[in-house]
C-alpha cells in the first residue's frame, strides 16, 4: 500500500484512540464515543492483516501450535508494556478502593491479567481490573490465533458476494445475541449488567465477529480497489458527510431506551460506520480524510498502541491527585485533560525511544 494511504490509516487510528481517551475521562455529553473507537480498532486490524498477508506467502501453516506462535508474535511487542502497566495499576487501584483491595479476588485478577485471560472471565469488573484497557489485548489474542484459519478461508472466496453475505450473517448474529444476552438465565448471578456488558463488548468470541468482518472488508477492498480509486473525490467527500450523519444518529440511538435494552449500543450500532470509516480513510480521497491526515494525527496513530495501554492509568492518577483540589469533576477541566493527553504522549514516546535504544544495543552486542 502507498505510504500516503498508510498515513491516512494511522490518522484513523489516532481518531479512534482519541474517542477512547474521551470516554475514559468521563465526559458524559459525548456518550460512549469510545465504543466506536474500539470497534474501529478491531475492524481495522482484520482489514489491514488481510491487506498485508493476502498476496504474500508469510502464512505457512494452520494448526494449534502454529496459530499460537503467530498470535504470540503479534502480541510480544506490547506484552512487556502490558506487564509494566499491570503492576503500575496495583497501587492506583488500591488507592481507588481505599486499601480494601488485596484479597483472593485481587490474586485472581492479577493472574488473569498476566496471562492475558481476563477477557474470558464472564464479568466486566474482572475484565476491567488493574489496567482496564488491557482487556483489548486479551481479546485480540483470540483474533490473532484465528487469523491463519480466517486467511485460509478468504483464499477460497470465488466472488465478492461470499464475504459480503458472511459478514451480513455475522452482523445479524451479533445483533441477535446482544439482544438475547439480556435474557440469559444466569444473568442473575452477576451484579447489575456486568455479565451482559462482558458478553456483548468484551467476550473474545463476540468481538471476533468484528475482526472477521474487517478481514472480509479487506478482501472486498483488494478485489475492487481499482474501481474504488477511479471514483471522483467529490463522491467520497459526500460519503464522509453521510458517515458523519450516521455517527450522529448512532450517538442519538445510544441513548434510546429500546437500543439500550437490546444491548445494541455497545457494539452493533458502531459496526457499519466503522467499516465505512476504514474504507474512506484507506482511500483518502475525501476532504475530511485528507484534512485529518496531517503530521500530528499520523504521529499519534503511529504510537497509539502504546498510548492506548498507558492513557487510562494516567487519567486515574490525575483524578486521584486533583479530587482534593477542585472536587471529583476538576479532572474533567479542559486544561487538565489537555495536560493528561500530552503527558500520555510524552510517556509513550519515552517508552518507544527506550525500546529502540535497548534493541540497538542488543543488536550491537549480538554482532
Q: Count the helices. How many?
A: 16
Helical amount = over 70%
Span between termini: 33 Å
- Beta content comes to under 5%
Query: Mind describing the biggest β-sheet?
Result: none
Q: Provide the residue-averaged pLDDT.
A: 88
Oligomeric state of the chains present here: single chain
Number of E-state strands: 0
- State the shape: globular
Give a structural overview.
The chain is mainly α. The chain contains 16 helices and no strands. The mean pLDDT is 88.
Kindly summarize this structure in a few lines.
The protein is mostly helical. The chain has helices at residues 3-25, 33-53, 64-96, 104-114, 124-127, 135-154, 161-180, 194-202, 204-229, 233-254, 257-261, 268-283, 287-292, 295-302, 304-326, 334-366. It is globular, with a radius of gyration of 21 Å.
What topology emerges from the helices and strands here?
Blueprint: H1 3-25, H2 33-53, H3 64-96, H4 104-114, H5 124-127, H6 135-154, H7 161-180, H8 194-202, H9 204-229, H10 233-254, H11 257-261, H12 268-283, H13 287-292, H14 295-302, H15 304-326, H16 334-366
List keywords for this structure.
single chain; 367 residues; mainly alpha; 16 helices; 76% helix
Amino acid at each position: 500500500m502507498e505510504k500516503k494511504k498508510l498515513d491516512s490509516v494511522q490518522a484513523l487510528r489516532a481518531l479512534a484512540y482519541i474517542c477512547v481517551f474521551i470516554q475514559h475521562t468521563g465526559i458524559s455529553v459525548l456518550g460512549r464515543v469510545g465504543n466506536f473507537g474500539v470497534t474501529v480498532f478491531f475492524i481495522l486490524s482484520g482489514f489491514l492483516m488481510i491487506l498485508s498477508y493476502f498476496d504474500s506467502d508469510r502464512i505457512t501453516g494452520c494448526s494449534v501450535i502454529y496459530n499460537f506462535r503467530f498470535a504470540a508474535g503479534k502480541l510480544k511487542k506490547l506484552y512487556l508494556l502490558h506487564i509494566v502497566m499491570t503492576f503500575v495499576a496495583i497501587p492506583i487501584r488500591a488507592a481507588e478502593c481505599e486499601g480494601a483491595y488485596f484479597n483472593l479476588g485481587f490474586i485472581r485478577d492479577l493472574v488473569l491479567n498476566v496471562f492475558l485471560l481476563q477477557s474470558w472471565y464472564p464479568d466486566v469488573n474482572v475484565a476491567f481490573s488493574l489496567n482496564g484497557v488491557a482487556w483489548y489485548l486479551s481479546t485480540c489474542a483470540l483474533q490473532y490465533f484465528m487469523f491463519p484459519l480466517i486467511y485460509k478461508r478468504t483464499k477460497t472466496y470465488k466472488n465478492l458476494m461470499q464475504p459480503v453475505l458472511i459478514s451480513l450473517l455475522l452482523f445479524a448474529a451479533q445483533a441477535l445475541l446482544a439482544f438475547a444476552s439480556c435474557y440469559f438465565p444466569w444473568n442473575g448471578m452477576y451484579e447489575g449488567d456486568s455479565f451482559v456488558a462482558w458478553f456483548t463488548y468484551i467476550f473474545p468470541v463476540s468481538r471476533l465477529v468484528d475482526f472477521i468482518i474487517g478481514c472480509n472488508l479487506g478482501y472486498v477492498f483488494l478485489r475492487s480497489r481499482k474501481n474504488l480509486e477511479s471514483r471522483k473525490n467529490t463522491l467520497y467527500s459526500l460519503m464522509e458527510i453521510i458517515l458523519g450523519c450516521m455517527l450522529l444518529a448512532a450517538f442519538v440511538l445510544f441513548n434510546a431506551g429500546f437500543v439500550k435494552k437490546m444491548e445494541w449500543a455497545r457494539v452493533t450500532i458502531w459496526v457499519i460506520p466503522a467499516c465505512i470509516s476504514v474504507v474512506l480513510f484507506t482511500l483518502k480521497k475525501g476532504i475530511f480524510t485528507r484534512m485529518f491526515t496531517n503530521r500530528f494525527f499520523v504521529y499519534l496513530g503511529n504510537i497509539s498502541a502504546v498510548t492506548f495501554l498507558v492513557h487510562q492509568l494516567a487519567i486515574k492518577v490525575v483524578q486521584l491527585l486533583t479530587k482534593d483540589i477542585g472536587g471529583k469533576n476538576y479532572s474533567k477541566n479542559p486544561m487538565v485533560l489537555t495536560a493528561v493527553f500530552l503527558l500520555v504522549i510524552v510517556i509513550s514516546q519515552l517508552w518507544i525511544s527506550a525500546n529502540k535504544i535497548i534493541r540497538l544495543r542488543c543488536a550491537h552486542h549480538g554482532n
